[in-house]
Sequence to fold (602 residues):
Amino acid sequence: MKQMNPLEELRHSCSHVLATAVLRLFPEAQLDIGPPTDQGFYYDFDLDHRFTQEDLERIEAEMKKIIEENQRFERLEVSREEASKIISDFGQTRYKLGRLADIPQGETISFYRNGDFIDLCAGTHVSYTKKIKAVKLLSIAGAYHRGDEANKQLQRIYGTAFPSKQELEDHLRMLEEAKKRDHRKVGREMNLFAFDPEQVGPGLALWLPKGTVLVEELEKLAKETEFDAGYDRVRTPNLAKENLYHTSGHLPYYEDSMYPPMELVEDEGGQKVKYYLKAMNCPHHHLIYAATPKSYRDLPVRLAEYGTCHRYEKSGELMGLMRVRSLQMNDAHIYCTEEQFGDEFRAVNDMYLKYFELFGIKKYLMRFSTHDPSRLGKKFVDEPVLWKETEDMVRRVLIESGIDFVEVPNEAAFYGPKIDVQVWSAIGREFTLATNQVDFAVPARFGLTYTTSENKEATPLCIHRAPLGTHERFIGFLIEHFNGNFPTWLAPEQVRILPLNDSMRDYAEQLRKALHAIRIRVSVDGHSDKLGAKIRRAEVERVPHMIVIGEKEAANGKVSVRSRIRKSFEGEHTVDEFIALMMDEISSRRLPDSFQTEGSKT
Fold:
């Protein structure tokens, strides 16, 4: 029996109550699965009737009746034959028999019963339905059976639950705030990016000029940071022959997530060769490492690239910038000896912490993913000794560094243990931001070596790291984190000049040229609107600093400043004073006032 934590147990119980309520109201529904999630729970239904918002309210009301009935959750362990009969008698054969077949031979088969409802389930659950104190149904979505677009699309009802009504109310407030900050909504308001599924394709972002500023400023930050940390920059092509991905071992594990190959005639003999769009940078970097001989004196070798990768994510999983098919990765690979591993891995984690401080990320958690020994040779490379050694090394570095982490079994990369970096935005929304992985298997597949001090050949360890993840996901996170009110250094437009009337246009243009000459991103609002309308427009577009120019300012060679993010900028300044403030603001990469609080995590 899988033991869940109390919150998972509560939410899992709610998913069963949800299914119970749906069958009471729609007895013809066929059930698939209903697990707990990090944010709540869901259940998938096959039903000809399309659920509506009114249905959601009816179902939630029925759930509350079931909770008040205080039904007991009872576990039943049965044979496979008995399980098949229970499913048939309950009239849920369409999907449940397939789920029964997924259970390996010899593994315990169990059901949970509450009232008249029974479901194939490993558990666990609360003892009685009245233990559920605060539950809310949130939304309806489509979901392909088993996540496969070739299968039928089911209806998924999402909900959430908490131990107390106050926690639920706090969560719902956060969700409302998240809707206002949704990166797709804010991105439209600020003209940052666009998608054209019909002509370009789903999940392929078009970066507008203002959004491109974000991309380039983040790339500039990463390049500066990595230069200081001793990384060398490299560049690799966007496609490669299939042999490369056979050598790396990626094809057997990731082919479903890669774009289909292009079959090309390679020579006059008519030999056809398959090329794949690059889905990951690491195989190319391994070849760069192998291009020149290495000795122990050359290690560690740190190769960094903002490589564009393409992954054929399922259309139902695409979501704005958070899940895309073309992505730019803040990628690097570190080749080192076992003795160097601890310092290198620790330095990568320290880089994460510096970025957290820079972006005002106060809550974070490292998810340390390990392997499952029973799945060696299937999901994970068959190297039991190396698995133990590298997992022990990662665990030791995390403990010695005092970094908050949790261990998650059976979620490692196929070639070694990894860390997924979980962060929380300013409003408490959780994101998976980046990854830090250990690779003890693939360097040997490529024949990567270095000469030891004893003049012998040895294989280096490889650390895969991407502290800023992909531009797409990280910018999506930052949009919601800052609600578009970016720090000045990152803001697509840093200053907007607002002349009070047309007679101020010449002075406004002189000032724009002066600021533009020192690479401040600035524009003039030349509309004939009143000042209030110009201010509102700049606020909607999240311009951090506004300069108001009237006759008095023009006569005195001064500017009147309104700032969305820095109180100290407010008021009247000479042009030179304002330029000095701006240059310091940009070079320091200072956070907005609203993020200037103590502490680096909670």
Remarks:
- The chain has three domains: 6-171, 193-482, 495-595.
- The chain has a mean pLDDT of 92.
- The radius of gyration is 28 Å.
